[in-house]
Each structure stands twice: as C-alpha cells, then as structure tokens.
Amino acid sequence: MSRGSGSPGLGDLESAVMQVLWTSESPLSVREVHAALTGRDLAYTTVMTVLDRLAKKGLADRERDGRAWRYTARASREELTAQVLRTTLGGLDPADRTAALLHFLGESSSHERDELREALNKLEQQDR
C-alpha cells in the first residue's frame, strides 16, 4: 500500500475516499463516492470495501438509508493529522519529542512558521 502525498496514515485510495467525504456537506452513498472518484478505474465493490474499512478503523461513520449505507468522515483532515502526530510523538521520551518537533519546524516554510506563531499567540492569550 502506498503512503504517498495523501493523508497521514492512509493509503492513496483511502486518502482519495476521505477527501471525497471531507468535501461533502452531507452523508454519501457508496455509489456517490464511486462517482466522485473520477479518473480512477475502480470497481464499485472496491470503493465499498474501502468505505467499510474506514468505518471499521473509526475514520468514517455510516448510517443506514434504506438498503444502502451513507458515509461521513468522523474527523476533519486536521484532526486526523493531529491524531497521527500524537500517536507518533506520544511514545517518545520528552527530549526526543522536542528534538523531533524542532527538526520538523526547521523544515517548515516561513509562512508555516508565521501561522504557527499566530496560533501559539492565540493559545497563550486563552491561557491568561
């Protein structure tokens, strides 16, 4: 399974399906997700299997709609990314966690650092 430029912790097809769910304003059927995955030669049953697995992983919610299931993303892309980072960094020694975060920040763009600085300022103001 490829772990390319998609969402963290997800394969390419899972990322594509999650992207469809994230951009929808309402729950989607398997058929609707399949139709939204334009440019991919996928069987309906493949999309159904991916959605079922995403639901079993706790990444998507599903509800009955007659004989069909309708799916929604359980968490936003940002929440999923934060969860992956918490899982990855949470098991590290505090010094290693700090070193990893500093290394990560060293590879970020000035725009990303500005956004982080703004977010940190907001958090500090909330703590007061």
Automatic annotation (TrEMBL):
GO terms for molecular function: DNA binding. The keyword Aminoacyl-tRNA synthetase does not apply. GO terms for biological process: negative regulation of DNA-templated transcription. SUPFAM superfamilies: Winged helix' DNA-binding domain. Gene3D superfamilies: 6.10.140.850, Winged helix-like DNA-binding domain superfamily/Winged helix DNA-binding domain. Pfam families: Penicillinase_R (PF03965). Belongs to the BlaI transcriptional regulatory family. Keywords: DNA-binding, Transcription, Transcription regulation. Residues 109-128 are annotated as: Disordered. It comes from the Bacteria. This is CopY family transcriptional regulator.
